[in-house]
Every structure is written in structure tokens, then in C-alpha cells.
Amino acid sequence: MSDIDDTENYKKSLSELTSDQIIDLIVQKSLTKGDKLDNEKTLCEKLNVGRSTLREAVRMLASRNILEVRHGSGIYVSEKLGIPDDPLGFTFVQDKKKLVSDLLAFRRMIEPPVCALAAINASKEQIEKLETKANEVEALILAEKNHHKADASFHSLIGELSGNTVMPKIQPIIFKAIELFVDVTGSMLRKETIKDHRNLVDAIRMHDPVRASDAMFLHLIHNMEAIDSHFH
Q1: pLDDT, tens only, 4-21
Q2: Distance of CA 123 to CAs 113, 119, 161, 169, 207, Å?
Q3: Where are the beta strands (DSSP E) in the chain?
Q4: What is the pLDDT of residue 139?
Q5: What is the reported pLDDT for 47?
Q6: Which of 1, 74, 124, 153 is most buried by a 10 A CB count?
């Protein structure tokens, strides 16, 4: 039998069908990352399935970063919202120098115009949230602690502020780029990062797309210069 025939004859298991129903519930209720789902009993009743089937469906969705089970608390929509940790397999790229440089080049193409959109579309509340995140990064840097996760969240938030629905889907690329950059450069650019982030927040607060784009481009140029300095 051919692969096509196998695909056509494939029937989803009850657990797979249940996982599809859970996704439908998330979409219908407009749940987003961090939101809590109904308890097991209620979900079983709504989906008309047994507890073992529900748990297997939840396990499947957790493996796909769609759900998160917090023991003693309940079932939540994952903060990663279905995005794989390393969707493009960067972990297995051996030439880390070239990978970091290429990721920065990619970011220079994407992030400045996204930052410009954020300056146009961001609300007052969103800008306050961005400033809080910038302060978090600054506090970690000044305490000489690893700041790459907070830094990545700062850039991710700018993507959300842009209003572009595609940006959150490519955030793993940004996250990996920042993680690799911090791992490679260590304490380099700590002061510059604080200053650059402040400039980004100020430009977005002023709703100045040109200034915001320029601030992001300069921030990434600083990163590229640090990489060049580190490897030469």
C-alpha cells in the first residue's frame, strides 16, 4: 500500500480527536497564553470523554507547547502558545559564529520595521508594559545576572505591539538569536543594551516610527560590532 493510501485511510484516535476539540475550545473562548482551562471533570463532560482519554489528549497538546499542566493548579494555555522551542534546528548548527551573525542579519531585516509599527500602534498600557520589561532587563544586567530571557521577552513584546499577527510565530528565531548572542559575548554591551532599550521605549512612547526603526537598527548594529570584536 502506498504512503498516500496510508494517509487517506488513517483515522485519528479518540485522544487525537479530543485534542482537536480542546484546540477548538481555546479558539472559541479566545483563550491566550497563561489562561486556565476548565477542570478535568468539566472538560470530560463538555467533550463527552473519559478521564484517561482527556489526560492523553492534554499530554499530546503539552508536548506541542499548546497546553501546560501545573500540578495542583490545573491546565493552562502554554506561554509558548504552540510554538516549538527550536523549530528550525539551530541547536544542531555547528558554526555558532556564522549562526549568530546570520541571525543578527535576519533581525536587521525584520525588527526595525516591526519597531516602527509598534510606535504607530502601541497603546499607552502596552507602552507601560514595555517599559516595565525594559526595567527588568536593566535590573538583571546591573545585578550581573543572565538577562537573555528577559531581553528576548522585551523584543517579543515589541513584536506584539506592532499588531502584526505573524511576528509572534517567528519569535523563537529572535529568542534563539538573543540567547546565542548573550552566551557568546558574555558581559559585553551591558551598558549599551540598557541605553538602547531606553531609546527604543522612548521612541515608541513618542509614536515616532522613524526614530523607533532607527533605534532598533542601531541596537542591532551594536550587537553585530560586538560579535565582530569578539571573534577578531
Answers
A1: 444 444 578 999 999 999
A2: 18, 9, 8, 21, 10
A3: 67-70, 74-77
A4: 95
A5: 95
A6: 153
Distance CA 55, CA 19 (A): 10
Shared domain for 101 and 15, answered yes or no, is no
For the chain, first and last CA: distance in Å? Answer: 57
* Residues 94 and 71 placed together within one structural domain of the fold: no
Q: Are residues 13 and 105 in the same domain?
A: no
Inter-residue contact 25 to 37 (CB < 8 Å): yes
Q: Which residues contact 118 (CB under 8 A, 6 or more apart)?
A: 158, 159, 161, 162, 163, 204, 212
Band of residue 77 on the pLDDT scale cut at 50, 70, 90: very high
Contact predicate 19/60, CB 8 Å = yes
The pLDDT, as a whole number, for residue 6 is: 44
